[in-house]
Amino acid sequence: MDNTQAVMERALGTLSHEVLDILTKMSVVCDYKAGSIIVREGDIEPIFYIIQDGRVAFTKKMVDGEQFLGVKTRGEFFGELGVLDHAPRAATVHAISDCKLIQIHEDTLENVLELSPSIARAIMRGIIRSVRDTDQITIAELQLKNNELARTLENLRAAQAELLLRERLKRDLEIAAIVHKNILPTFLPTVPGFEFASLARPAREIGGDLYDVMQIGEEHIGVVMADASGKSVQAAMYMAVVRALFLSESRLTVSPSEVAHRVHDLLLKVSTTADMFVTAFYATINYKTRYMRFIRGGHDRPVYYEAATDKIKLLDVQGRFLGLLPNLFVNEDSLTFGINDILVCYSDGVTDAVNPSGEMYGLERLRKIVEEYHHHTAKEMKNFIIEDIDRFRADQEQPDDLTLLVLKAI
């Protein structure tokens, strides 16, 4: 293994030959002289950096001058947040020795993220470390200033603390919104014999909903609807990892229970907190035979309309949420779509919508809408459901992310 590949694996973890080949071919190695500036604060550039040789320092402009943030060296990376949220660089990066840097364009990074969950895990850990280091520096700086100004500027300190908190919360929500938007599909595939319609409408505070329809081989698609615990950046980043894992593991088997166990086991390995988990409905459909296998890992029960009997039923297969407790338990069930059968998957933002009197929208109202408008297209069905929820809520705030995925056999 050459030096460049060795450094990539040191930074990003063990990589497959396919991923290594993509990174080796698509990355560029550049030299920087000691004292040169690699990245300027405020610039926008779609580049992710891995340090092959040398040391770099990070500084940030503050009110009273430039603040030193830290140093990174061989086998470490930087620039991940600028690539993920397309925001201006948050700091200036200086070469404090002669450096050799591996540069990876965001398009290449997005490509290998879908192929390799280990890269997603490594980048997530890097972000968490950077946030913690920055927090420590910020806290130390604020403590020093507070000690110096405590007697004369008590009121100003309180105002500054409140402003910092608000700005940080605002930025967290902005990043979470960007990450959440980027993990949702920009379009759903065209599949013979099926219609799809979807909507993801975030609440005022970002949660972590996910839906997707994924092509699996030549005859199958995977359908996932999931909801991560927590809010803001943590939930959005966690769900980005969840999506990468489902995309990766769904290529290995058409068994939903096997995919769920694989995703669960990997989440247990990458989770950095004791309270993060994800509920999920996951199904695979052979669109030639219309045969669907599915699991429900603690998620809301999908609504299924069976045209042949004109009946509504709930897919109530038993299972536990993924990513928190060992020994995952999920049952796998199956059914075969008939012509005009409908599957409605949703997050709890649908059933938990509240009207001005405090009453929840609930599952029964959703069932009635599906039953009443079953003869319409998937897109029309989706619109009817959203319009009914909005009429019910009136002017009440949306309490949680509202996510909806409608499938209809045609």
Q: Would you give an account of this structure?
A:
- By secondary structure, the chain is α+β, with helices and mostly antiparallel strands.
- It folds into two domains: 3-126, Jelly Rolls (Sandwich); 183-409, Phosphatase 2c, domain 1, CATH 3.60.40.10.
- The chain has helices at residues 3-12, 17-26, 80-85, 106-115, 117-149, 154-183, 232-249, 256-270, 348-351, 362-372, 378-393, and strands at residues 28-32, 37-39, 47-53, 56-62, 65-72, 77-78, 92-95, 99-105, 194-201, 209-216, 220-228, 278-286, 291-297, 303-306, 311-314, 333-336, 342-346, 402-409.
- A hairpin with a 3-residue loop joins β10 and β11 (220-228).
- The longest helix is centred in the first third of the chain and has 33 residues, at 117-149.
- The relative contact order is 0.10.
Condensed summary:
With 410 residues, the protein is α+β, with helices and mostly antiparallel strands.
